[in-house]
Amino acid sequence: MEKITSISPEWQNWLLENLGRGCTPQSLIDVMVEKNFDPMFASAIVFHFSSSNNQARPAVAAKAGAQSIKEKAASGGYQYETPRLLPGNVIHTNDRAIHVVQRVAKPVVAFFDNVLSHEECDELIRLSEARLKRSTIVDPTTGKDAVIDDRTSFGTFFTVNETEFIAKLDRRIAELMNWPVENGEGLQILNYKVGGEYKPHFDYFPETDPGSQVHLRNGGQRVSTLVMYLNDVEEGGATTFPELGMQVGPKKGAAVYFEYTNSSGQVDPLTLHGGAPVEKGEKWIATKWMRQRKFS
Ligand SMILES: O=C(O)CCC(=O)C(=O)O
Ligand SMILES: [Fe+2]
Fold first, then answer.
1. What pLDDT was estimated at residue 54?
2. Region label for 206, one of left (φ > 0), alpha (ψ between -120 and 50) or beta (otherwise)
3. Which residue ranges does the record assign to the Fe2OG dioxygenase domain (predicted)?
4. pLDDT tens digits for 174-197?
5. Percent of the chain, pLDDT > 70?
C-alpha cells in the first residue's frame, strides 16, 4: 500500500494533543509509521509540530518583522538580568572544561569550543542514523526513497537520560547551561542535506500564537538553547542571528548558546536565529532546549 505523505487536520490535532500531554516524539512517530505513514514524513512532521517555532517563516516576513523587533528592543521591552550562564573563560562541568570563546551581552549569546569530543559527535550521528533507519523500513518496491531524498532536513529525538551515553551528555549540557537536567527537552538531532535550511525563528513560543498554549502547558516557556555542531560543514550551514548581523560557522564539537526568557517570563526577540542553507556537504546538529520548569 502507498505510504501516506500528507497530514489531515485530524492527525494534526492528534499530534498537538499528544505532544501537549508530554508523549515523546518518537512514540508518536512509531504510531504514525504503524498507521502507514511514510517514516521520513512522520519524522519530519512530528519534528515540525514539536516546536511551533518550526513554522518556516517566509524570508520576506522575517525581514518585515526585523524593523519592529529592533524598535521593540530599542524601546526597552526586554529586561536583561544576570545571565544564567556563568561568567569566566572556562566553564567546568563534572567531566569537561569548556572554553568560552566569545560572549555577547544583549541578547545573551555565547560560543563554546569542545562541548562534545569528536567521538561523541560521531556516536550521536551513528545513533541517530540507526534510529532513522530503523523507522524507515520502506518496501523497496514503492520507491519512496526518492521522496526522502527531497527532504532537506529531518531529525530524531532522544529522551532525557535515555541511555548512559545520553545521560552523560544531558548532565554536561545542563551544567554548562546552568539549568536543571529535568527542565530540559530531550536532545534533538537534525540533519540537513544540501539546500537544507532552517528559516529565521524564535525558539520560545510566542504567547500570541494559538499553537503556543499547548506547548507552554508542559514545563512552561523555553528559556535557553544550546546548538551543538556534530560535523564540519564544507560550505554554508552557518547559524545566523539576523538582528545581530552575526553568523556562527559550524565546527565539529563546538556550540552556540543563547538565552531569551527572563525571570518574569519576558522573551527577547533579538534572539531571532536560523540555519543558513547547506551549500556543500551536510550538516548535523544536536539541540538542547531548556524550559522554565520541569519538562516531562
Ligand atoms: O541549524 C542551526 O544552525 C540552527 C538550529 C536551530 O535554530 C534550532 O535547532 O532551534
Ligand atoms: Fe532555533
1. 39
2. beta
3. 183-292
4. 999 999 999 999 999 999 999 999
5. 77
Q: CB neighbours of 164 closer than 8 A, spacing ≥ 6?
A: none
Q: What is the pTM of this model?
A: 0.76
Q: How many domains in the chain?
A: 1
- 277 CA to middle of ligand 2, Å? 14
Residue 2 maps to a domain = no
Residue 277 Cβ contacting ligand 1 at under 6 Å: no
Please report the atom of ligand 1 found closest to the CA of residue 188.
9
Please tell me the residue having the least CA distance from ligand 1 atom 2: 275
Question: Does the CB atom of residue 239 touch ligand 1 within 6 A?
Answer: yes
Q: Is 285 in the pocket of ligand 1 (CB under 6 A)?
A: yes
Evaluate: CB of 273 within 6 angstroms of ligand 1. yes
For residue 283, the SS3 value is strand
Point out the ligand 1 atom lying closest to the alpha carbon of residue 256. 3
Give pairs for 68-71: CB < 8 Å, separation 24+. 69/243, 69/269, 69/270, 69/272, 70/243
Would you say the CB of residue 203 lies under 6 angstroms from ligand 1? yes
Residue 3 lies in a domain: no
| In a domain? residue 110 | yes
For 48-73, write each residue's pLDDT tens digit. 666 543 333 333 334 444 445 666 56
Whole-number Å distance, alpha carbon 57 to ligand 2 midpoint, is: 12
Can you tell me the ipTM of this complex? 0.99
pLDDT at 9 over 70: no
Domain interval for residue 64:
9-291
Could you tell me if residue 1 is inside a domain?
no
Question: Residue 246 corresponds to which cell in the numbers above?
Answer: 552575526
